Amino acid sequence: MEALLQVRDLKKYFPVKGKWFQPTTHVKAVDGVTFSIQKGETVGLVGESGCGKSTTGRALLHLLPPTGGEVIYNGRNLTKLSTSELRVLRRELQIVFQDPYASLDPRMKIRDVLLEPLEIHGIGTKQERLKKVEEILEIVGLGGHYANRYPHEFSGGQRQRIGIARSLILRPSLIVADEPVSALDVSIQSQILNLLQDLQEQFDLTYLFISHDLSVVKHISDRVGVMYLGRLVEFAPKESLYSAPAHPYTQALLSAAPVANPDARPQRIILKGDVPNPANPPSGCAFHTRCPHVMEACKSVRPELAPVDGQGHWVACHLHQQ
Ligand code: SF4
Ligand code: MG
After folding, report:
1. Ligand 1, atom 5, residue with closest C-alpha
2. What is the model's pTM?
3. What is the 125 CA–ligand 1 centroid distance (Å)?
4. Alpha helices in the chain (DSSP H)
5. Of 259, 280, 281, 288, which one's alpha carbon is 20 to 30 angstroms from that of 273?
6. Can you give the residue ranges of every domain in the chain?
7. How far is the CA of 54 from the centre of ligand 2 (A)?
């Protein structure tokens, strides 16, 4: 397999205006994230809210201009493309949002919602575009007759199917799915996850799947990255991440996740305190204020991602770098 996407040292900082006596500071929402996604693969990105996973997804698509780093898609450096080159490439790089309702104009019929991306990219004649709309509604399991309806006439799961149809209608190769099932009931969640998996096979799609829910990510991903305060702290094939988590933060997240057999649950690890303020992250290892294994060096030396096993399991923690 070849890498479809390479993300290198990606950074996204947001300025925070200080009071009159303070200089402007920055929230380092994404602070040096490196990983790749193979063609046809699903990479999951997990972490608590505010850890920078959504910002990573938007910055790598250049929906938010990155502050630093590089994104290589299919051999092309997105960071170096002009706005118009990026606009053309946008067709191949799509996003599915958590709440499709918020991104659907309530006054637009579904037909027009789905025609819009085709019109923006100048695809086909009017007739061909209408045909594509009917086709895509069938593909996502809704049926062409839904085209005449308005967003409020759909359930949450149906709206997410429309959100997926809207990104899929351009026949992209990479889809960033940002919490696509988090707003849905559990029974509907699995329908949408199954749909995403079917579509992946049918259309040779590559996914970056962002979620705070470890069991959802486990279900759908080939490899998984765990983020904490704007950085990847662990990145590994799904099997080794879930069976042998190496980072104390991942261990704590997994110990708190619901499991089918509660007797098989590892002992719950309770973390001290809350996630620190990202505008003023702790020095050294940003997790050191909450880590049950904190050592002296952790307070001053920032651990870099390094291989654990030579099998593609990486972790950023001094416990593994002695
Ligand atoms: Fe804990 Fe130190 Fe590892 Fe950070 S580097 S996770 S503080 S042991
Ligand atoms: Mg988010």
Report:
1. 317
2. 0.94
3. 58
4. 53-60, 83-89, 110-120, 126-139, 156-168, 186-203, 214-220, 238-243, 248-256
5. 259
6. 3-92+171-266, 105-169
7. 4
Mean pLDDT (10-residue bins), the chain, 322 residues: 91 83 81 97 94 97 96 96 94 90 87 96 96 97 93 93 96 97 92 97 98 95 98 97 97 84 75 85 96 96 94 97 71
Q: Tell me how far apart the 2 most distant CA atoms of the chain are, in Å.
A: 68
d(CA 70, CA 113): 32
| Best residue for ligand 1 mutational test, from 269, 294, 320 (most atoms within 8 Å of Cβ) | 294
Q: Which atom of ligand 1 is nearest to the CA of 292?
A: 1
- From the CB of residue 199, how many other CB atoms can be counted at a distance below 10 Å? 18
For domain 3-92+171-266, say whether CATH 3.20.20.70 is its number.
Answer: no
Mutate to test the pocket of ligand 1, among 233, 283, 298 (most ligand atoms within 8 A of CB): 298
Within 6 Å (CB) of ligand 1, which residues are found? 247-248, 285, 287-288, 291, 293-295, 298, 303, 317-319
Number of C-beta neighbours around residue 119 at 10 A: 12
CB contact set of 65 (below 8 Å; sequence gap of 6+): 59
Q: Are strands 93-96 and 174-178 parallel, antiparallel or unpaired?
A: parallel
Contacts of 298 (CB under 8 A, 6+ apart): 284, 285, 288, 291, 318
